[in-house]
């Protein structure tokens, strides 16, 4: 199994490039990070593409987790103080809306560019995937739902 997965991964890296494959593996909810890291350790991916792909691939998730943590802290502070909307920022997460916008925009663009071809390998219709992506595409630069 590992040899088959490694051979398939080596072919994908040769065809698509190391950076693209690392980003896609990091974005994939079906591939645990530990397993992806272990598989990549047995390939020819160098440190540069591995690091850059990991950073780019984890940005969207990090933005969502940071937002969820900040929202949870706000709810907890509101519950403790009894006043809705009253809270202090905790020291654990410096949270800026611009960070969310950048992370979500990058993640959306990577998915829009790579997902149709990736899913086509498994029989999906590229054009149908592209149409669906365009239907759900969001202009994060004007999004105000972070508050």
Automatic annotation (TrEMBL):
Task: Determine if Transmembrane is one of this entry's keywords.
Answer: yes
Query: Would the keyword Methyltransferase be found if you checked this record's keyword annotation?
Result: no
The record's keywords, sorted A to Z, are:
Membrane, Transmembrane, Transmembrane helix
* The protein, known as: VTT domain-containing protein
The segment(s) forming the VTT domain are 9-70
- Species of origin: Emiliania huxleyi (strain CCMP1516)
Superkingdom of this entry's organism? Eukaryota
One Pfam family this sequence matches = VTT_dom
Membrane-traversing stretches: 21-42, 48-68
